[in-house]
Each structure stands twice: as C-alpha cells, then as structure tokens.
Amino acid sequence: MQTFEDITKDKTPIIITSHPRSGTHLTIDLIRRQFPETRIKKKWGSNSSSFLSIGSFNVRNTTLRLKEEEKALKLISSCRYPIIKLHTYAWYGIEKNFPHWIKWMKEKGKIIFVARDIRSVMPSMHLYEQSFNPNSRCSVKKFIRQPYLGKENRIAYWNQQMINWYKPSACLVLNFEKIIHSPELAINKISNYIGLTPTIQTPLLPKKVNSIWHARFQRLFSTNPSSTAIVGYYKGQKTKKWMELFDKEDLEFIYRNGEEGLKLLDYRLDH
Asked: What's the predicted TM-score (pTM) here?
C-alpha cells in the first residue's frame, strides 16, 4: 500500500485559501480552466470532485478523519498539480490532526490567498449560512455583529485574517474584484507564481452558474465542470448588494472593525 510520502513526493499542490464567500471557487475554476495540469480526473456521474477540499478532515471521529484522508490521497493521485481548498478557519484543525499535510503544502505547495471586500462577503455569507445555521436566520444587521470564531464580531474576524495573510510571505494574494475586472492580469500573476503556462481559453473566466440546481447538475454529470461554485440558497432568497442592505450605522461599524483590512486591500471607504 502506498504511503502519504509515496503519493505526494512528485506533487506540487496549489492551495487556495480564503475567508468563506470570497471567491474561492471562482479562483479554483479559473485555474482549472486555464492550467490543464491542475485538473483532477473525475468520473462521470460520481460524487468525486475536480479539486480537493481538506476542510472535511476536521471531523471529531478519528476513524472518519482517516477515511477522509484516504479518499483525499486517491483524489490527488491522478494529478501533478492538484488544487486544494482550505478556508482560513480550517488551517489550525488540519495542522493539529494532520501535520504532515500542512508540512507538505507549505514546503512543496503554492499558496494563493483570495480576498474580497467584506461589505460584499457578508450578504453572501448571511444567505449561505441560513441553510444550515439557525443563528444566521436574522437580519444582516444582527448577523455582522455576531461573535465569530473567537473574535467579537464577524467583521473583526475578517479583518484579522486580512492582516494575517496580507504580508510578505510565500503566498500570492489576489483580490476577487480584480479577478472579475482584469482576469488576464490575474492569470498572468498565477502563471508566474505557479510556474505553468496558461492556455488562454476564452472566455477567460468560467461561466457563472444560474441556480443551485445548475451547480449540482454540473458537479454530478460533468467530468470537467466549468464551475464548482456553491450557490447560497434559503427559501428562495437572492443575495442583495451591500449598498441595498447596510445603513450608515452598519457601515460605520464595518469600517471601525475592518478598517485595517480594507485599507490593506485598497478598498475605498467613501462609497
């Protein structure tokens, strides 16, 4: 039986990390679209994925954790440059229970951090969480003020993540908004960083999915889905733009708790 070292020794993982609802899947799909070497082989009609999400390792049951690792190794065995998704909040749990994965990712991998304006993150996250988190079934005004992962509120957590990741390191930082507006520039940055040549397939960005059912259909019935996006859905609601949701008091709260992160990422605070 092949060991972890046997399977990963000639692999160069491309790790996409971010705060949730920040363009993680857009970046994954852009890379899969433009760099064929990163495509994990997927069987038609299977529940396997075209990238690896190792946040699933963070389950309490030890047996289940080991089963998740076994599935993960099978998934990446077919790809020289496998894409790995790992949100910022999941790093500690993986490092604690699977330190060999983090060691391999840091030593051999290419880490890309994707950032998005917190004012846009919160409406998307609010809708998404309502499908599984009863505490999020409140107004967005209350939602942004809820304590989150040890921080006094959700904005403060986002702010700390931006500070933690936006610093000189071996990490490439990309802005979600800049990927949308200048995909060719994002592709060039990614190419220079991971050392692969893009195919420049047009349109440059993956097609946007129309609904939750469209997304599910692609994931199940395509061996190379153009989009792996997870669509937020709860009781027929649609994500609204932050300009429609936040009043002056909300924006002052967001700027007070997220100012450093917003400035680091060059987001304007006057609109």
From this structure: 0.91
